[in-house]
Specification:
With about 210 residues, the chain is an alpha+beta fold. About 35% of the residues lie in helices and about 5% in strands. The protein has eight helices and four strands, in the order ααααααββααββ. The chain has a four-stranded antiparallel β-sheet with strand order 1-2-3-4, with helices on one face.
Length: about 210
């Protein structure tokens, strides 16, 4: 029998925070640049702009897009992210459950202004294990699970506030599969999708919208 939502929430709250970075590892050039006086600031400021190699390895075009998304997000460069989203055409999807826009840059900038760590989530999700379905590479892999597992909870806790995520999991009306940030990159390097689901909006940003 799968674990109850309340049990998942309790497990999440009990999970220990991730260990601090190992000493002797200097921040990447992109992260250092983001912290310079006068540099743009966003939720991804200070994160590493150089993601660890994906396991299993990705096709070169997919890995290139992954790294460029991370670098642009850490630099808080909304315009660069929008360019990447449209680099191979106009099929990119970035709407969430209740918000849509024709301008990815304005969409992400507005959500950051509401206090949502959208860019940080982009960076962190691309550090998680991925899944492959035909020509699509999907982050995180756990988004394909029919329901959130205890192991998934530990991973998702890196992306969403622990107490609020626990509340969502305990909500009998909330979906129990992963409804957070989702990224899809095609084998040809086309960034196809950059957001999905109600978890990106509920409950932590609901009161911050105009």
């Amino acid at each position: 029998m799968p674990p109850t939502a309340l049990a998942l929430g309790a497990l999440l709250l009990a999970a220990a925070p991730p260990p601090p970075p190992a000493p002797g590892n200097p921040p990447s050039a992109g992260a250092a640049a983001a912290r310079k006086p006068g540099a743009a600031r966003c939720s991804a400021s200070g994160l590493s702009s150089e993601p660890a190699p994906a396991q299993p390895p990705l096709p070169p075009l997919v890995e290139s897009m992954r790294r460029r998304i991370v670098a642009a997000a850490v630099a808080c460069d909304y315009v660069a992210l929008a360019v990447l989203a449209r680099e191979n055409g106009s099929r990119f999807s970035f709407s969430t459950y209740s918000i849509s826009s024709d301008d990815p840059a304005a969409f992400w900038r507005k959500r950051e202004s509401y206090g949502e760590p959208v860019l940080a989530r982009l960076v962190k999700v691309l550090q998680l294990p991925h899944a492959q379905r035909e020509d699509r590479y999907i982050w995180p892999a756990l988004s394909l699970h029919p329901a959130v597992t205890p192991e998934d909870v530990k991973v998702i806790g890196q992306l969403f506030p622990a107490d609020e995520l626990a509340a969502v999991l305990a909500d009998p009306h909330a979906s129990k599969d992963y409804q957070g940030t989702l990224l899809v990159i095609l084998a040809n390097g086309d960034w196809l999708e950059g957001e999905r689901g109600r978890w990106s909006e509920y409950p932590w940003s609901k009161e911050k919208r105009p």
